[in-house]
Amino acid sequence: MRAGGRGVAGLGGWAGLAAGRVVAYSAASSDEGVASVSVSGSVMAVTGVGAGSATVTYTAKNAGGGAGSSLAVTVSGAAAEPPKAPTLAEVLAARTVVAGSTATVDAAAGFAGVVESFAATSSDQEVLTVSVAGSVVTLAGVSPGAVTVTVVAANAAGSASRTFDVSVTPRLAVAATAPAYCLTGEGRPVAVAATVGREGVASVPVTYTISGGRGPYTVIVGDAGAGTLATAGPAAADRLSVPTASSRVAEVSCARPGVNLKDVGARVNVVEAGAKTIGLLVTDAAGASAAATVTVQVAEDVYTTAYNGGTMRAGRTYVLGDADVGRRGGLLAFFGAAGQLGSCVWAVVAAAGAVRGRRSACVVLVRPAGRRRGGLLGCPPAERVLLRVG
Questions:
Q1: Spatial distance between the Cα atoms of 34 and 218, rounded to a whole number of angstroms
Q2: Whole-number average pLDDT of the chain
Q3: pLDDT value at position 323?
């Protein structure tokens, strides 16, 4: 038998005992450190105590005398310890989860001993919910806030519990703003290593604000087309690393999408008047992403429209020059949004169709906002004069 084990035997019907009823039974062990023995009525019980061998001798007596016999007992192994409840081990560190995302915690490290099952609860399920598979606790962020998670480890002998704190932060978000207009021309050809590039094409500052999520963040800023983020002027989109949620500014070229200003032919059209959509894609450390777009009206220098055939297109805005040029050449133009370029604010009355980009052919009827007569009254000479073709 094994240590801690127990065996029983009946001593009734003793053979060879003198005639008469048995009135007493007894038993003894040759080594109580190996096996112990007890008798109750006619039943003998032997219990393994420690590894080794012993001889158990038992006797029966009545008025006519007594008789006895013996048996050898071998005990193997140490006595089995009674089961114990789990105990506490490592502290489970506080966690941060973004609302709408999940994180996992292996609770096994928090307990010692034999654990047959784990359970977990959240102090506020409107902030965080929990589920358990084996020893892994899954934390699901619901809304911003703070909760306490309680984990219970149990077995047949009892249980132990441990708590840890969880903060749920807002979902990742990004907002962006940019000036309404980007005023630029086709730039100037310039040698770049073995290729011909272009310089002097304006860029526009895009201010973006990251909130929520978990830093650090990766930010891609560039031209947005067909619902995806494409390129940002040069060959590839600008990839920025932002360590914490904050506001930043990124400069984005006003060139057409996909144009690499470091490698472009001297007569290639790199600027196109009209709406330019700039996209931002932010990815946080947990893999969550958020996107934003801004739209900028590119106003091309009217004298560089020769790059695309020399025709100004209806519904688009062009740069005629400074206000004093407008006076000398009889060019009347407008700027359609108050407060964008200082005090020079105009409103269209009519435009002469497709207007060629030459001073002598450009005649547009406009009037200053709030005035009856056309002209450039109230526009300082330093102001840029814009033309929107009707």
A1: 71
A2: 75
A3: 38
Distance CA 166, CA 180 (A): 43
Amino acid sitting at position 45: A
Please count the other Cβ atoms lying within 10 Å of the Cβ belonging to residue 322: 16
pLDDT over 80 (residue 104): yes
d(CA 219, CA 288): 12
Q: Which two tokens stand for residue 24?
A: 């007493």
Residue 374 or residue 311, greater confidence: 311
For 287-304, what is the mean pLDDT?
Answer: 85
Q: What are phi and psi of 328, to 5 degrees?
A: -70, -40
pLDDT at 285 over 90: no
Decide if 225 contacts 295 (C-beta within 8 A).
no
Q: What pTM, to 2 d.p., does this model score?
A: 0.56
Q: What's the burial of 313, exposed, middle or buried (CB within 10 Å: 0-12/13-18/19+)?
A: middle
| CA-based end-to-end distance of the chain | 105
Using the predicted structure, report yes or no on whether residue 15 has a pLDDT greater than 80. no
Mean pLDDT along residues 178-187: 85
pLDDT tens for each residue of 317-354: 777 654 333 333 333 333 333 323 333 333 332 233 33
The token pair at 125 is 């399920």
Q: Which of 215, 210, 186, 214 is nearest to 199 (CA)?
A: 186
Check pLDDT > 90 for residue 271.
no
Pairwise CA distance, residues 140 & 99, whole Å: 8
pLDDT of residue 17: 54
Tell me which residue of 215, 221, 209 sits closest to 286, measured CA to CA: 215
Give the Cα separation of 294 and 163 in Å (integer): 46
Q: How far is CA 333 from CA 91, 180, 258, 297, in A?
A: 72, 17, 31, 16
Q: Longest Cα pair distance anywhere in the chain, in angstroms?
A: 151
